[in-house]
Amino acid sequence: MTSFTLKPKDTIGVMAPSSFVEKDDIEKSRALLEGKGYRVVVHPQTFARQHQSAGSAAEKIKALHALYADQGIHAIWAAGGGNRALGLLDGLDYDLIGKNPKPLIGFSDATALLNPLYAHTGHEGFHAQVFKNLHLFDQLEETLAVLSGGTSSLNLHGVDILQDGLAEGPILGGCLSLFHYLPGTNDCPNLQGAILLLEDTGDALSRFDRMFIQMKRMGAFEQIGGLILGRFDDLREGGRPFGFTLEDIVLEALDGRDIPVVMNAPFGHGARLLPVPIGRPGTLDTQRKLLSFPLRTNTIKEDA
């Protein structure tokens, strides 16, 4: 397992694995990071468009491979979220990616890449704000603190603790509506003992219920060692009231398993999204109200 740090003067490559993005947002975020001393290379594919998508799957794969192969790029930041990152998985060259370790940074639709990349290469990524939003939210310093290794924990004070306990294992997960497609496939990391993060937005509890049931049927909740639920905002219910709460859904999916479970952790699709490494070993301690993820090996290369 390889850990990464990112520091000023390192070069960040940007590409769009999901829906198309606006150039103005990318340029504003580029200026913000360059003002902090980082170098930013925006791949031309970032501004491609095909319907809602940022170009075709082939264009995205080519861009991602190019950024991994470029020895001058130290990290890859997903330009935005949205849809269609799942469509890249069958075309990725994991041998190329594995030989050029660098973290992918993003969340939401990027969940479909963060976890398979770790599963196939063992290299960590970061569940963190997408590039286009860096200039919109006042969390850049907190994000850079985690990426640089200056912060190695997520404060869970104020969360709701459903079940107390201590868990140690790789941190995995991200957006529920993407992650639930992975268990049972070759693109899912080993969930045994994992600390699983899940969050989502803009959907109905009845649909989240189906996702949790699917993951339960695939054995995901029999394997994990701990569960951290972030924000589930902008819930949309129509017609007959569903009635079941998110807590009901989660406890039913766990089916009596005695593992630590917390809700309303500070990450999600809203204004609050604190970064967490995906693939790095972590410790969830409900008594201390802390998720810690100390650094392991740093492989970021100095510029020649």
Provide keyphrases for this structure.
Rossmann fold, globular, disordered C terminus, 14 strands, alpha/beta, Glucose Oxidase, domain 1, eight-stranded mixed beta sheet, 304 residues, 9 helices, six-stranded mixed beta sheet
Written overview of the protein:
The chain has 304 residues and is an alpha/beta fold. The chain folds into two domains: 11-152, 3-Layer(aba) Sandwich (Rossmann fold), CATH 3.40.50.10740; 154-292, Glucose Oxidase, domain 1, CATH 3.50.30. It is 27% helix and 21% strand. The protein contains nine helices and 14 strands. It has helices at residues 23-35, 57-69, 94-99, 111-121, 140-147, 176-179, 205-217, 220-223, 246-254; strands spanning 11-15, 39-42, 75-78, 104-106, 125-127, 153-155, 160-163, 166-175, 195-201, 226-233, 261-263, 276-278, 281-285, 290-292. It has an eight-stranded mixed beta sheet. It has a six-stranded mixed beta sheet with strand order 2-1-3-4-5-12, sandwiched between helices. β10 (226-233), α9 and β11 (261-263) form a beta-alpha-beta unit. 45% of the residues are buried.
CATH topology assignment of the largest domain: Rossmann fold
Helical percent range? 25-40%
Topology pattern, helix = H, strand = E:
EHEHEHEHEHEEEHEHHEHEEEE
CATH homologous superfamily annotation of the largest domain: Murein tetrapeptidase LD-carboxypeptidase, N-terminal domain
CATH architecture of the largest domain: 3-Layer(aba) Sandwich
The number of domains = 2
CATH class of the largest domain: Alpha Beta
- Ranges where pLDDT stays below 50 over 5 or more residues in a row are 298-304
Task: Please provide the count of β strands.
Answer: 14
Structural class: alpha/beta
Kindly report the oligomeric state of this protein.
Answer: single chain
Note the beta-strand portion. 15-25%
